[in-house]
Structure formats: C-alpha cells, structure tokens
Amino acid sequence: MEIENNQKIKNNLNINIKKLKEKESEYDNELNLKHIKLKNLDELETIVGFSIQDLKKLKSILIEISSHRMNFNIEQVKDYFLNYLKKLKL
Question: In angstroms, rounded to a whole number, what is the distance separating the alpha carbons of residues 79 and 38?
C-alpha cells in the first residue's frame, strides 16, 4: 500500500515537473521576444533618433489629427504623414 502511495506521489511530482518545464519554456520564449523588441527599439533610437517616448507622442498626435478629421482613420493619417515626410526628403 505504501509503495503504491509513493508511486502516485512520484507520478504526480513528475507531472508537475513536466508542467513547470513547459511553463519555463514559455517564459523563456516570452523573455526572448521582449529582448528582441528592446534590441529593435534601441536600434531604432540609434538609427532614427526617436525614443519610445517620442514614438508614443507621435502616435498620440496622429490619433488626435485623425479624430479631428472625421473622414480620415489613423492608417490614412499615418500614410499621409509618411508621404509628407517623403516629399520633404527626410
């Protein structure tokens, strides 16, 4: 009886170990994605000179513009803005 009980405990522990390893793998993947995003943001800031705060401000400005122009959605405003920058050859 005790051997059966110990075997059940062992099986449950093995199941828990497997679940923990799967969760660890998920967290590792998520951490890697976050690392890649941060690296890309650092590169963007270095290349373009925009920090994440600058980009957030720019996004809020574009959203505000789109809200004032009822016939434009945010994507149209973004396209308009990017085309405008191309015309300025920035």
Answer: 25
